[in-house]
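Record filed below.
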Amino acid sequence: MSKRNKELEAEVLNWIFQVLGEPVPKGEFEDILRDGVVLCNLMNKLAPGSVKKIQAKGTNFQLMENVQRFQQAAKNYGLPQEEIFQTADLFERRNIPQVAISLFALGRITQKHPEWTGPTLGPKMAEKNERTFTEDQLRASEGQLNLQMGYNKGASQAGHGGFGNTRHM
């Protein structure tokens, strides 16, 4: 199990409650998120209507369904499957660092949604920067010899002393 990063967890919680427009409640990271209600509300803020049913109270199984609904909504929002935590990671506290990483990734993905104008999380994502060259530009380099083609610009092995010889002191 990887080591927990309390700063990352605090940053993720701050972001979630900024999005929700609520103060961050007191308590442990996993306790605040465990029942999935906060996560479902978060997805409904990012993508309105993405989680249709949220169980505020109920059995453990019903609360775990909240987490599963969140996971499906996050996947639909664009979070890659491999970045989504398992339900047991949060609900049974098996891998809380993975939960924090998943939510951080979700905060980063919001940058790819131009309709989202609220807070984002993490560094700015790189954008595709495709370059197009004309045929003339591509041909301009054909006559040049570069170092990868074996040209050594006059360097030689003169004075090297030969391969395999021992160095005499």
In short: Helices lie at 6-20, 29-33, 37-46, 60-77, 87-91, 96-109, 135-139. The first helix runs from residue 6 to 20.
